[in-house]
């Protein structure tokens, strides 16, 4: 039994191309409408944020906790308070919303953070707890007396130094947020040793061998590197040399 297969004409291809074109056009329209809706919502949020900042300007300037919460509100809608607005002369969001005083506050705080890091670098090798910086700044150990600041303020001040290529960065070791004021990055082994010291108070070469299953050469190399960078102190009076971090020694003494 013979059968004839109906051939596919040029009209079918034309219809298929037309349908695909219509889908693409509809998709483009939906994306455009969605983007327009998001931009409208963002504009409303920014307007409300502006009104909020004007109403609570005094609290934002004087209260570290309130200031941190306001900054988190800004970040939630993609506004970096310390970043310049599209490169315009008006300056940062802080400056536009609250006047130059808040912007100046962070720049002044950044200067004090740099001062604290510089003054303590010989004893901690350029690695210092954010909390210790906050305590020193609050107590006025530096120029111009004390400032009421939070850890969040310290971190934002350090971030404001990024455009200068200062080498300052925040790092996390164990449960501690710290500021590194030297350009050298910590490798994984060095971070592991400092985290162990944070938990145990000190380490020895044999402790590293047992807990991390490192060979003696690896453990000794990491210790020597950290000693060379002044990130560790050595106690040679014990039966086996003990290695302490000056940063965590200060934390224990301050508690």
Tell me about this structure.
The structure is a single chain. The chain is mainly alpha-helical and 255 residues long. 62% of the residues lie in helices and 7% in strands. It contains 11 helices and 5 strands; from the N terminus they run H-H-H-H-H-E-H-H-E-E-H-H-H-E-E-H. It has helices at 10-55, 57-62, 64-76, 93-98, 100-124, 130-139, 151-159, 188-200, 205-212, 216-228, 246-254, and strands at 127-129, 169-173, 176-180, 233-235, 242-244. The strands form 2 sheets. A 3-stranded antiparallel sheet has the order 1-3-2. Strand 4 and strand 5 (242-244) form a beta hairpin. Helix 5 packs across helix 7 (151-159) and helix 9 (205-212) crosses helix 10. The longest helix is centred in the N-terminal third of the chain and has 46 residues, at 10-55. The radius of gyration is 29 Å and the shape is flat.
């Amino acid at each position: 039994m013979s059968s004839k297969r109906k051939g596919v004409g040029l009209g079918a291809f034309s219809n298929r191309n037309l349908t695909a074109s219509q889908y693409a056009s509809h998709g483009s329209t939906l994306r455009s409408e969605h983007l327009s809706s998001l931009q409208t919502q963002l504009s409303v949020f920014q307007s409300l944020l502006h009104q909020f900042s004007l109403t609570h300007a005094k609290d934002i300037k004087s209260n570290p906790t309130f200031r941190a919460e306001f900054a988190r509100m800004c970040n939630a809608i993609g506004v970096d308070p310390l970043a310049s607005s599209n490169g315009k002369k008006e300056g940062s969001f802080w400056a536009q919303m609250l006047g130059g005083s808040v912007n100046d506050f962070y720049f002044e705080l950044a200067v004090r953070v740099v001062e604290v890091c510089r003054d303590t670098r010989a004893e901690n090798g350029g690695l210092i707890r954010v909390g210790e910086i906050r305590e020193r700044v609050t107590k006025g150990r530096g120029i111009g007396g004390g400032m009421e600041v939070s850890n969040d303020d310290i971190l934002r001040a350090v971030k404001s130094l990024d455009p200068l290529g200062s080498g300052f960065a925040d790092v996390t070791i164990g449960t501690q947020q710290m500021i590194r004021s030297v350009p050298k990055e910590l490798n994984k082994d060095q971070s592991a040793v400092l985290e162990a010291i944070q938990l145990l108070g000190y380490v020895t070469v044999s402790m590293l061998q047992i807990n991390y299953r490192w060979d003696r050469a690896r453990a000794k190399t990491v210790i020597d590197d950290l000693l060379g960078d002044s990130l560790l102190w050595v106690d040679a009076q014990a039966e086996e040399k003990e290695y302490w971090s000056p940063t965590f020694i200060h934390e224990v003494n301050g508690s």
